[in-house]
Amino acid sequence: MKTLLRVGTSSRTRGSHSRELADFFQQKWLGANPGNEIVLRDLIKDPIPHIGEATIAGYYTPKDEHDETLKSATALSDQLIDELRSADALLISTPMYNFSVPSALKAYIDQIVRIGHTFGFDQEKGFYGLVEGKRAFVVTAIGAVYAGTLAELNFLEPYLKTLLGFLGITEIEVVSLEGTTTDTSALVRSKQAAMEKIETLLANGA
Ligand SMILES: Cc1cc2nc3c(=O)[nH]c(=O)nc-3n(C[C@H](O)[C@H](O)[C@H](O)COP(=O)(O)O)c2cc1C
């Protein structure tokens, strides 16, 4: 049995293109892998708090030296990291907000990117990821069209690829739906293309 951790980040719980594509992905993934399991981490229905001063102190204090304050300030981070590590694959569905990730996703990222847990550092190797053996799928919904001349304004996709790579996840597939707020008939075609890409990815084994 395999587990897919599905992280949803659109503030829209209705009419969201990224959620619609993630629903499609989930349905196809379960179809291709009967008996497998989805763990849903919805960052809008169940928002993740920003890290605080004690959380940061906890990140940089060895666990066996944690007092009650540091234990409690890092408990959510522990839980989210366990959830990520236990999953066989990761699906992040996200809109572009202001050229990058929504703040709800950034708050989640700040809880899971943690030295000694999801990445390490030593003088010889520099930084290295500790989340290995996992595939990640990123589904994005973007109002305008950036592919082509505006590509350098798209900080969402390169940011998520860099971040996942930093954690040790090197097999990353991105399905990007662009132009969600522009031409309606073009959107129908690009959504169809995005769904076909998802089907192809899953047909090749996810
Ligand atoms: C707060 C906010 C910021 C946005 N910023 C951008 C942006 O920088 N570039 C862009 O092309 N579209 C932007 N959009 C449009 C969304 O990317 C687009 O509507 C997308 O489809 C939203 O995802 P969803 O359909 O899953 O909710 C923004 C929308 C919102 C609500």
Structural class by helix and strand composition: alpha/beta
Q: Which fold does the CATH topology refer to?
A: Rossmann fold
- Kindly report how far apart the N and C termini lie: 13 Å
Order of helices and strands: EHEHHEHEEEHEH
Q: Can you tell me the number of structural domains?
A: 1
Tell me the Rg in angstroms: 18 Å
Ligand inventory reads: flavin mononucleotide
Share in helix: 40-55%
Task: Fill in the keyword field for this structure.
binds flavin mononucleotide, 40% helix, 206 residues, 7 strands, alpha/beta, Rossmann fold, two-stranded antiparallel ribbon
Architecture overview:
The protein has 206 residues and is an alpha/beta fold. It has one domain (3-203): Flavodoxin domain (Rossmann fold). 40% of the residues lie in helices and 21% in strands. The mean pLDDT is 96. It binds flavin mononucleotide (FMN).
